[in-house]
Amino acid sequence: MQLGLIGLGKMGGNMRDRLRAAGHEVVGYDRNPDISDATGLADMVDKLASPRVIWAMVPAGEITEQTIDELIPLLSPGDVVIDGGNSRFSDDMPRAVRLAEHGIGYLDVGVSGGVWGKEYGYALMVGGEVDHVALAMPIFEALKPPGEFGFVHAGGVGAGHYAKMVHNGIEYGLMHAYAEGYELLEKSEIVSDVPGVFASWREGTVVRSWLLDLMSRALAEDPHLDKLKGYADDTGEGRWTVEEAIRLAVPMHVIAASLFARFASRQDDSPAMKAIAALRNQFGGHAVKSQAGE
């Protein structure tokens, strides 16, 4: 099967390699001419036979919207556009409506697998109409891991990105649980081999997972994580998950706490904790620590 693939960074480039290894013809376009198979979007589209499937792996937001706008006059009725980036689910239906006005289908696909997906396969969460999913199914089959799992047609337009949003929210919570366990082990007076403890959990325990494998790998490379600063960014999915929890009145203690912990990691000196220190001093005369030199 043919596929037009826009965006050949770490994820898109590896997806192209995996699809080609499975026998599919991929025409990739990237702004970097050294890795691109086409000189532009028009050239990429011209190299594909109808009905075309075009997969965008570009940053969410304005770049995705611009890409879709540029594709519309180049495509034909019956073609399908896939957004495989980490877009917010609420952006999907307006895109689907805009494309449908020109007879073009739309699928939103949450993709998980990172830099390891080329070798092991990508978990795919798809939203959209059944006939559009069927058209792209050979591509999905090649990208997913072998076996029963790793793919779901989660529902209508927006369901794929919604599922990926929740997936990433859960990921926040799992990572933070491992992180808290790591810190406690590091501070223990009686545990001398923290990397060994994490490695021992990788088989036979109920907490084993791919994330645990990655944590064990990180500790093998840097046992006390001395090379890193305790600063963690977020790309939006955790926030959207918590926003949905608020909208739907779903108690979400762990994921919300893990998101807020990331916010705290970016503060060199917490304004909230300054306020607490000031209050303790005001009502109880408790000692406070002043800024250095003051």
Automatic annotation (TrEMBL):
Domain (6-phosphogluconate dehydrogenase C-terminal) ranges: 160-292
Keywords assigned by UniProt, alphabetized: Gluconate utilization, Oxidoreductase
Entry's Gene Ontology BP terms: D-gluconate metabolic process; pentose-phosphate shunt
GO molecular function: NADP binding; phosphogluconate dehydrogenase (decarboxylating) activity
Top-rank taxon, per record: Bacteria
Pfam families: 6PGD, NAD_binding_2
InterPro entries on file: 6-PGluconate_DH-like_C_sf, 6DGDH_YqeC, 6PGD_dom2, 6PGDH_C, 6PGDH_NADP-bd, NAD(P)-bd_dom_sf, Pgluconate_DH
Family statement drawn from the similarity comment of this UniProt entry: Belongs to the 6-phosphogluconate dehydrogenase family.
PANTHER family: 6-PHOSPHOGLUCONATE DEHYDROGENASE
Protein name, per record: 6-phosphogluconate dehydrogenase
Provenance organism: Rhizocola hellebori
